[in-house]
């Protein structure tokens, strides 16, 4: 099968590597002038994955969109602009798989909504979510992930096309819950990093139990199933986000507390803005998200916010 990956960052380049490993004909797309794409052109590697000579590299969007399967892995806040460019080309009969996690801050749309509204009338849209780090996958460490879509046929087809020895895919059954759960776990990851930076990592157990419960409430209020918060896309991704040395969100939270610069993308920084606004719209209380938002956007003292979070009323655990 011909497959294109749009986005040549850490995760996008891994997906290109993985799809080639399982036998597909792969193109990796990066914007013209992208330093990451130039590095791949020069050396075929980014230090984590090395692309085979027959993985095509392109900055031509029309070439990229020749494939039947198009996987997208970019920063979530740039998805709308990209989908507008794709829609303008009148693309038909493609399957777009969103290999990314986030919520659009300006509109509060889930990523599948953005793609679906742009190209969904004549194309299929799905999401690829769940735990996993490039460093572990390329070392041969397997994991389980989720494919979800509004179409049962699309899920069945993609799981057959994308499954390999490194990744076992599960059928998603709650697109709302899985997308909100996947996006919000990055906010919990930032909070975990803040606890690490404060030297109180022992509180991560309480963070995990409370975090899952508050996200379940939001998913329920949005029309999804709160049980999804306990699945692979949220709770099942905590090990790779709350504890992992590879997690950008956890590392960002830790660096923030320590006053250290951090230049990598931490999607939870944007997601927390959308989540707190959505919680207000739906009348849902999200104490952890509200604490992280207060620290990042309102100048609140991180130690005071974390202390307040874990000294809430003892009448109820959640």
Across the major sheet, the strand order is 3-2-1-4-5-6-7-8
Low-confidence stretches: none
Rg calc: 19 Å
State the end-to-end distance: 47 Å
Order of helices and strands: EHEHEHEHEHEHEHEHHHHHHH
Helix coverage percent: 40-55%
Shape summary: globular
| Overall residue-averaged pLDDT value | 96
**Class derived from helix and strand content:** alpha/beta
Helices, by number, come to 14
Total DSSP E strands: 8
Folded structure, characterized:
- The chain is α/β, with parallel strands linked by helices and 318 residues long.
- Helix content is 48%, strand content 12%.
- The protein has 14 helices and eight strands.
- Helix 8 runs antiparallel to helix 9 (204-221) and helix 12 (268-282) packs across helix 13 (287-297).
- The radius of gyration is 19 Å and the shape is globular.
- The mean pLDDT is 96.
What's a quick, concise take on this entry?
The chain has 318 residues and is α/β, with parallel strands linked by helices. The chain has 14 helices and 8 strands.
SSE inventory with pairings:
Elements: E1 2-6, H1 10-21, E2 25-29, H2 35-43, E3 56-58, H3 61-64, E4 69-72, H4 79-87, E5 95-98, H5 111-119, E6 124-129, H6 134-138, E7 143-149, H7 152-162, E8 167-171, H8 175-198, H9 204-221, H10 238-243, H11 248-258, H12 268-282, H13 287-297, H14 302-309
Parallel strand pairs: 1-2, 1-4, 2-3, 4-5, 5-6, 7-8
Antiparallel strand pairs: 6-7
Helix pairs in contact: 4-5, 8-9, 8-11, 8-12, 12-13, 13-14
């Amino acid at each position: 099968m011909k497959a294109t990956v749009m986005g040549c960052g850490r995760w996008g380049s891994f997906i290109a590597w993985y799809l080639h490993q399982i036998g597909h004909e792969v193109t990796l797309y990066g914007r013209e002038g992208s330093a990451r794409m130039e590095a791949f052109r020069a050396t075929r590697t980014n230090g984590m994955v090395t692309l085979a000579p027959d993985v095509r590299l392109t900055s031509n969007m029309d070439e990229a969109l020749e494939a039947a399967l198009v996987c997208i892995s970019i920063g979530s806040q740039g998805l709308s602009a990209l989908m507008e460019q794709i829609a303008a080309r009148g693309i038909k009969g493609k399957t777009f798989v969103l290999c990314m996690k986030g919520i659009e801050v300006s509109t509060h749309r889930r990523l599948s909504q953005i793609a679906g509204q742009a190209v969904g009338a004549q194309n299929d849209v799905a999401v690829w979510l769940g735990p996993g780090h490039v460093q572990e996958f390329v070392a041969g460490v397997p994991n389980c992930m989720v494919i979800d879509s509004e179409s049962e046929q699309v899920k069945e087809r993609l799981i057959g096309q994308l499954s390999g020895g490194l990744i076992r895919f599960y059928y998603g059954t709650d697109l709302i819950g899985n997308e909100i759960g996947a996006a919000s776990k990055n906010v919990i990851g930032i909070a975990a990093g803040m606890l690490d930076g404060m030297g109180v990592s022992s509180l991560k157990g309480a963070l995990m139990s409370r975090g899952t419960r508050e996200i379940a409430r939001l998913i329920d209020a949005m029309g999804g199933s709160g049980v999804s918060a306990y699945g692979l896309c949220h709770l099942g991704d905590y090990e790779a986000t709350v504890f992992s040395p590879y997690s950008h969100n956890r590392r960002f939270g830790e660096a923030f507390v320590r006053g250290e610069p951090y230049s990598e993308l931490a999607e939870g920084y944007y997601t927390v803005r959308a989540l707190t606004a959505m919680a207000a719209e739906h009348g849902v209380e999200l104490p952890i998200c509200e604490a992280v938002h207060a620290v990042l956007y309102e100048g609140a003292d991180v130690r005071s916010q974390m202390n307040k979070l874990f000294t809430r009323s003892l009448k109820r655990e959640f």
